[in-house]
Here is the input.
Amino acid sequence: MNQVPKRVCIYPKDIQRITGKSYRQSTRILNEIRKSLRKPKNSLVSIEEFCLHTGLNIEHVLPLID
Here is the structure.
């Protein structure tokens, strides 16, 4: 079943819901992804980039994001 995502970027609250980690830890994960992709501090991280970095399947992540 292919779901069309309602949005493209991921936020710390989403990572918190997916991983069960704290909000602060989720922010650190986002910063690590930005650093590894050489993105500026204020840039957004896409759901696909998050999945590539964590090794999670996008099919498992999309239902957990509103």
Remarks:
- The chain has one domain: 9-64.
